Amino acid sequence: MTINQLFIFQLTPYYDTDFNLLRWLKGHDYNLDVIVPKLTNHLLMRKGVWDLDNLPDKPRNHDVHKHWKSGLTGEAKRTPNCIVNIEQTGGNDYWGMSHVHPINEILK
């Protein structure tokens, strides 16, 4: 049974790529006893409140963006399912952002 078959009901088309699944296999030495509970938890988190598959399509209008002004963030064109963030050094107020917003809001 392949890892794709183990997670057939949890994998979304966005996340179901050879690259994503190979990272899990290589990162945990192909040990499915370790991978299955961790990947199950990860996929539930992706689909939950965070809705990570649709995050790139959402507007950048959160209060955190008042501190994180510069930078371009978007989906990589040449590498599927990867996010690229380009920012000018010194333009973002990480100190202010981390003191005003909880980490779970920053990560959104």
TrEMBL record:
<dbReference type="InterPro" id="IPR036865">
    <property type="entry name" value="CRAL-TRIO_dom_sf"/>
</dbReference>
<dbReference type="InterPro" id="IPR053302">
    <property type="entry name" value="CRAL-TRIO_domain"/>
</dbReference>
<protein>
    <submittedName>
        <fullName>Uncharacterized protein</fullName>
    </submittedName>
</protein>
